[in-house]
Design brief:
The chain is an alpha/beta fold and about 210 residues long. The chain is built from four helices and ten strands.
Amino acid sequence: MSQLAPENTDTIIEITAEAHAQLVILRDEEPEKERIGLRLEVTASSGEEFGYDLSFEIVTQAAFTDEIRTINGLTVIIPMESFEHINGATLDYSDRQGLIIRNPNKPPAVSIEGLVNDDELSASIEAIISTEINPSLAAHGGFVTFMGHNTEGIAFLTMGGGCHGCSMSKATMLEGVQTTLVDQIPGVLKVLDLTDHATGATPFYS
């Protein structure tokens, strides 16, 4: 889609004409439309997809450290903590999906140092994977491998076989594998997938 010519060459985020039109409509519905700007905040947790929080706020209430830009009359406020995560992204709009952020940046990598894989909890996880999870995934040509767990109840796995590069593999991991492990093993609170599905490879291990 066509890009709007920005008023500031360092806009941090590009806004397409379609997205800009929708944002202006939303802004103009606010009672203090002349005083507000779009605040775009990114939540970034290691090993998880970025989360985005878009809201309107009064520009003069922005923090001193916030980055403020004006793009064709629309003020954009980006918190300092979000700058590196959103810099270079594009905010777009489609009738089917609504507002969409196309972001070339990646969430921070998961810290895998100090994982435990030789204790009683690890043995329980391995048992469930080998007897229940992998037999189920085998029907789709896939499997998961337990890499270890940390002290916060997070189990780290990789996916292989038919799960590599599969667009549904993340959903499979979170909805199926995580549910099974969390329900059956009290010490597991969450599952994180270390597989790089974009390349069908596991970047942390060879």
